[in-house]
Amino acid sequence: MKKTTVHLHTRLQISPVDPRIFGGFLEHLGRAVYEGVYDPGSARADENGYRKDVLEALDRLDMTIMRYPGGNFVSGYHWEDGIGPREFRPRVRELAWQSIETNHFGTDEYIHLCRKMGWEPMMAVNLGTGTPEEARNWVEYCNIPSGSRYADLRVTNGHPAPHDVKLWCLGNEMDGPWQLGHVPAQDYAIRAQQAAKMMKDTDRSIRCVVCGSSGIQMDTYLEWDRQVLEYIGGLADYISLHRYVGNPNDDTPDFLAVTASIDHQIEQTDAVCRYVQARRKSKKRTYLCFDEWNIWYKDRAGDGMGKVAPHLIEEVYNLEDALVAAGFLQSFIRHADVVKIANLAQIVNVIAPLQTRGDDLLIQSTFYPFEMMCKRREGISLRLGVDGPSYEGKTNGTVCTVDACAIIHEDTLHLFLTNRHMDEAAEVSIAPADTGIVSVESAELLTGPDAKAANSFEDKNVVKPVTFEELTLKAGNAHMRLPALSFAAMTFKLG
Ligand code: AHR
Prior knowledge:
The protein has 495 residues and is an alpha/beta fold.
């Protein structure tokens, strides 16, 4: 394969990387909450019923923000069912995933978990079957110190200090016919405007995320976003984007090229935000909140058959999935000027990097790119010039064989590279124009025996990072040999 050169200049900066792009998502779905983060019956549970092994693994991902409680679940959820003494909380027939919800885990437990893990809470209100007033009451319960009905209810429930939830999603995927209470854009816009106004009247410091399109496949893609943004105006601090990708035709090169399509989705949605801002002659910019992203196509069955914590959408991830997960994060970093929040959907058992089986825990391949990148996230995203071979994916268009992004922080440079080639190593040089690379601080490589290689409970270490050795420095440039189907995360000192 022809060589690749990554050109950079430390002054060609895009924007600081918002740490909130390293967020997660916890939904009452399948075994995400029960048997996932919360499992009082497990030998691995702590005194609060949280799974210690799960939380220790999640700690390694150092997630900044955690979206809760859904997802599709939220569109039928009444938050008051999940507070107060457990013995009085109702068992509810849950329609989005056809399950039984015990409500043993609710708002106060979630906030407690967020505090324990250092996650910023991010809550979604029910704009499917719920009312704007119910949403506003939840803000009062969470954020007002005391002296009024819902604030005092929180105090009575044993939480004198406000939960102080700053970020609120105005429903979930309301453009989708599968959503409980789905309505056309104009009707959603009215609901969302009413809710946002009352929620912000209750606490002026909160920020709201309006539902954008739930995927690029929607007939109303971008038109939904335009209508909603035009109606809701300045109340929209962020607009949500969702994306689940897959390889149903077993075309790995095309699957790995999906990053180009993620780049386009971000740029198209941002274009709508800029268009509406200009039409409204407004100074206020609505930023992007990519609050659901992942690989999801192998296990789509969503019927919980009336069970508590059924096994639902427990996708098994392999090497190619891990490379695509890296691609999502690389795309967010390349668009650091517009993507301010992003949430890996989800964190445990349900389309997740972690799986529990009894008291055992499995780390899946997609865990590693997140871990490798989260510890190198501080700094400013750089504009790169990638000069090297390219190829054309069947549906996703032409991409460079080597995918790249970089973050600079003072004299530290973090660089992330994916070699998408199926069977050839990529010779790559990193060439800073205005400075030199003086040392390698750390370098890790994720690869595996083949695209379909996956970890399992029986063999947990098939796909995991190793120290990246094939890296040399010469005259201020770095030179490396990236194996076929691999992802590298590196930190250099500049000077
Ligand atoms: O993350 C799984 C589901 O995907 C969420 O509940 C929904 O918002 C999306 O369709």
